Amino acid sequence: MTVAEAARKASPSGPQVWPLDVKAYHALGELGLIPERTELLYGQIIRKMSKSPFHSYLHQSLSELLQAALPPGTYCRSEQPLTGHDSEPEPDLAVVRGARGDYRHEHPRTAELVIEVCVSSHEYDRSKLRAYASAGVKECWLVLAPEQQVEVHLQPQEGQYTETRLHGPGGSVTSTTVPRFTVDLTRLFAS
């Protein structure tokens, strides 16, 4: 029996996943060995979904509203990484403390508010909640476009959110961490 045959026989069948930590993910990225449009979740490289026109519309609308409501000492990042223990998700929008220059050498490790726009990615974006809660993100919104709702997750504790609120259709939702950020859901989802 050759060495290759023995290795095949000894290895389990099916796909194999080789977990990465954040440091290895960065190193491979710097070498050009990580495809673009990916993010690291729970030690695995995940290819990000493409964005529909409606996703882009909602993202831009929320970004404009959020920029106008930011409290002093915070900064809004769009589709940029948050570095956690074994994950580096790239939320659609994140409000972080500090200024842009504070993140010149490393990504923020937490956020005041994270927003994920979910047009066809509900389960994938929900799978990120554990990463956000583990990183201490105080508030996470899942903007559920088909349902015309916003799912708000609060009180991160031990890798999960202990409070969830559902808003809409209709009405409005106000952030607990960015109090001037209020979204009229009827207007947001109007076609």
Description:
With 191 residues, this protein is of the alpha+beta class. The chain folds into 2 domains: 3-41, no CATH class; 51-189, tt1808, chain A. It is built from 6 helices and 10 strands. A 6-stranded mixed beta sheet has the order 3-4-5-6-7-8. Strand 1 (38-41) and strand 2 form a beta hairpin. The relative contact order is 0.13. The model is unreliable at 1-16 (pLDDT under 50).
Q: What is this entry, summarized?
A:
This protein is α+β, with helices and mostly antiparallel strands and 191 residues long. It is built from six helices and ten strands. The strands form three sheets. A six-stranded mixed beta sheet has the order 3-4-5-6-7-8.
Characteristics:
191 residues, alpha+beta, tt1808, chain A, 2 domains, 6-stranded mixed beta sheet, two-stranded antiparallel ribbon, 27% helix, globular, disordered N terminus
